[in-house]
Amino acid sequence: MNLVGHKIYLRFLKDTDAGPLAEMHRKNREFWQRYTPDRPEEFYTEEYQFHRKKFALFK
What we know:
- This is GCN5-related N-acetyltransferase.
- By secondary structure, this protein is mainly α.
- It is built from three helices and two strands, in the order ββααα.
- The protein has one domain.
- A two-stranded antiparallel sheet has the order 1-2.
């Protein structure tokens, strides 16, 4: 499913998004630490994001 708007594009995550997602979290880590609970170091890895996405599908 994709949702497309004037300035936004949303879609479900794919397995191949794990690397870019982990990189995004690493780049924005300092900013988001003020607003989110403490995250384990492995949260910022591609493997963790891959398994996090897989687990979310079964909730």
